[in-house]
Amino acid sequence: MSSNTGYSDKNAKSVKIRPSGDKDTDKYIQSSWQRCRDQYKMSPDSNVELVSLSESEVRQRREPMEKLLSDSEEVFDKIRTVSKQSGYAVLITNTEGVVVKSYADSSISHDLEQKGLRQGTLWSEKIVGTNGLGTCLTECRPVTVFAEEHYGFNLHNFSCSAAPLISPDGTPFGALDISTYASGNRLYQALALNLVCETADEIEAIVFKNAYANQRVISLSFSPHRPETNALIAVNDSDTIIAATTPLLLALGCRDRYELVGRKFQEAFSDNPGQLESSVVLEMLIQLKGKPHKLYATLLHNSAVERRMKAADSAASKPSASGVQTHSAEAQASDTPLFSAAGKEPLLLKQASRCQRIVNKGISILLQGETGTGKEVWARALHESSDRADKPFITLNCAAIPESLIESELFGYGAGTFTGGLKSGKVGKIQASHGGTLFLDEIGDMPIELQASLLRVLAENEIIPLGEVNPVKVSLNVICATHRDLKELVSRGDFREDLFYRISGFQVALPSLRERQDKPVIIENVLRALCRDEENAENVQVAPEALNVLCQYQWPGNIRQLKNVLQYAMCMREGDLIQSDDLPDEVFAEPAAMSSEAGARSYAPPSRMVSMAGLTEAGVEQPPLSEKEELEQVLEQNRWVVTRAARALGISRSTLHRKIKKYNLFIDEAAGESDSPA
Ligand SMILES: Nc1ncnc2c1ncn2[C@@H]1O[C@H](COP(=O)(O)OP(=O)(O)OP(=O)(O)O)[C@@H](O)[C@H]1O
Asked: Which SMART domains match (predicted)?
């Protein structure tokens, strides 16, 4: 390990933590200080520099959280009122620790704003050291960082309490913080922490109800007088629990959300013969730590589900005059190919309804996503949702055939054009998709010379097959897909800018499987499809522990890999239950180190004093790094910004430049000289 850390072991021993009197608190503050010292190579008792992002960088990071922020407005109003009265600033960050929204409603909080507690600042623990937001995101738990517990000397007069914001699959999507000037006793901050935790719970419940608006959401409570709580589960049509909120998992003492998720409702809350109906509080008996407890379940009012159920009932009981069974608009919508490709992923559901509206409007659609994320499935769903559904759907994977053949594959050729070609000539894919849809997969691999011809086809709707002179009129819908960053290809001159704009009238980003909030639903869908292909397999299920393993795995090959894994497990299983032992070794790999501050994504209840340190990047035991590896790691963490990496390493910029040269590390000079985060 490098000794150029700017402080000696003697300094390290002098790490001082103001005793809080709370052992648990001391532990997480100590771990954070240790990370600052050993991993981020920060020197204690020196000032930390706050990094501010530009308006557009903040906007870009806020965009995915926009809906959540507007849905939770009422909850934010409540915490703002309390914060205003007590002189706190309210900050909301994404998982990187970038403040995407802040509220300063009092003169104290205006003052705090001037000191950096405002929208746009970056509170990543790696950059700023121990602090409320950064440490909360790293530890994935609520924290208060009070006065001298902050690593940076210039933050010693702040008191910050933060809690992670948790999405329905248990992964953090940001953090909420209230901060003020530190005064009095640290223990008084317990109230602030409580307020942040309660608010984070309320936000989690709102996001949860929205994510499962088409399922049954049940509130569970220990009191019959307060049946509606933030302790929620979502149950699908076959009575399987598909998600649970953090407050519920903590109340029931579950260390892992898959102690509930994946189980049948009746079985999880055993000996409960009652039926859940609207506005009835169902009393149930459960065992907690060996003792019986009464638990009250209430089915929350859900108009979408009620409409769907009513539609299903009436469809089942009365055929329409035409003899065709009727469905409500809701049921019809969720039956469409686009909605079934979207699963229950909130972002994709939104994209499905947008695509549904534009699919016949002549707007070109570009699909982006890693390999195996379902781009072709989405393209087919678009075709099947369009007016061209009964016409051909033709695909051409530009990366899968040699460059020299793409042109003839696309445009076809006339009789006798090539030696070795078909005597009668060949109809190209463009002509073959006339009337229907042409799906150009991996468009980023289209040779630049051919891009001009493709652009012409799209603009003029006609082609001239190779070796022919007469143009042929075509009418087709072109959908393109890529896993590459086309804008970057454009900037490198490898992709025509005019073609990029021509094919990307509307862009759909398909999330990787590891990012999806609806993993249990996707697993179930892929499994059902496989079961349909096998005799007597209709009752095959995945056991909760196996489901847990599948949901925690990082899935570099996305849904395609999931399909292979389930195919393997189907062969290995004995009986109708797929157990962990039936899964291939690959899915038991350690969670990969995460790029975001939040560390490895966790499916266990992540907060309220349950430390996820064992799963975070920080907690995974690392072998010692060589100086070169360490430099690469710190440069990577600081996005190759030399000034920032030098600061993180505790060395000067010129020393870092010398080391970069010594180890022949690649550095992008433009990025290296700038301090603005990429
Ligand atoms: N929503 C889904 N539900 C069930 N299975 C799916 C879903 N999406 C994709 N799959 C399955 O995953 C596999 C990969 O899907 P697809 O070929 O559409 O991915 P892709 O992104 O086009 O991959 P590539 O980039 O490698 O071409 C296919 O077997 C497909 O059937």
From this structure: AAA
484 ligand 1 Cβ < 6 A = no
Q: Enter the tokens of residue 109.
A: 């909080």
Angle of CA points 630, 94, 300, to nearest 5°: 135
* Range in 545-554, 593-602, 650-659 with the lowest mean pLDDT: 593-602
Alpha carbon distance 450, 208 (integer Å): 47
Nearest of 140, 279, 306, 148 to residue 215 by alpha carbon: 306
Distance 591 CA to ligand 1 centre (A): 23
Token couple for 127: 């950059």
CA of 564 to the centre of ligand 1 (A): 11
Domain range annotation of the chain = 9-210, 213-301, 304-334, 346-509, 513-586, 631-673
- CA distance to 32, 170, 230, per residue, from 244 (Å): 29, 8, 10
> Do residues 320 and 327 lie in contact, with contact meaning Cβ atoms separated by under 8 Å?
no
Ligand 1 centroid, distance to 373 Cα (angstroms): 5
What is the biggest distance separating any 2 CA atoms in the chain, rounded to whole angstroms? 91
Q: Which atom of ligand 1 is nearest to the CA of 397?
A: 27
Nearest CA to ligand 1 atom 8: 374
* Cα 566 to ligand 1 centroid, rounded to whole Å: 14
Closest Cα to atom 26 of ligand 1? 371
Sequence letter at residue 155: L
Rounded Cα gap, residues 590 and 579, in angstroms: 19
Query: What is the residue-averaged pLDDT of the chain?
Result: 78
Tell me how far apart the alpha carbons of residues 201 and 229 are, in angstroms, rounded to a whole number.
10
Tell me if 372 CB under 6 Å of ligand 1.
yes
The CATH class, in words, for 9-210 is alpha beta
For the domain spanning 346-509, the CATH number is 3.40.50.300
- pLDDT value, residue 626: 74
- May I ask the CATH architecture of the domain 513-586? Orthogonal Bundle (1.10)
Phi and psi, residue 37, nearest 5°: -75, -50
DSSP code per residue over 144-171? EEEGGGSSSGGGTTEEEEEEEEE-TTS-
The reported pTM is 0.49
- The burial of 264, by beta-carbon neighbours within 10 Å (0-12 exposed, 13-18 middle, 19 or more buried), is given as middle
> Using one digit for the tens of pLDDT, what is the confidence trace for 357-375?
899 988 899 999 999 999 9
Q: Of residues 507 and 82, which shows the higher confidence score?
A: 507
Distance 375 CA to ligand 1 centre (A): 6
Apex 657 CA angle, 655 and 660, nearest 5:
110
Whether 526 lines ligand 1, by a CB cut-off of 6 Å, is yes
DSSP-based three-state secondary structure for 3 = coil
- 598 close to 137: Cβ distance less than 8 angstroms: yes
Q: What are phi and psi of 501, to 5 degrees?
A: -70, -30
Taken as a whole, the chain contains a residue count of: 678
Instruction: Report whether 463 contacts 411 (CB < 8 A).
Output: yes
Average pLDDT over residues 115-135: 94
Beta carbon of 374 within 6 Å of any ligand 1 atom = yes
Q: In whole angstroms, what is the distance from residue 211 CA to residue 237 CA?
A: 16
* pLDDT tens-digit series, residues 153-194: 899 999 999 999 998 878 888 999 999 998 877 767 788 888
Report residue 460: phi and psi, to 5°. -105, -10
Q: Which of 652, 606, 554 has the alpha carbon at shortest distance from 201?
A: 606
Atom of ligand 1 nearest to the CA of 559: 12
* CA 559–ligand 1 middle distance (angstroms): 6
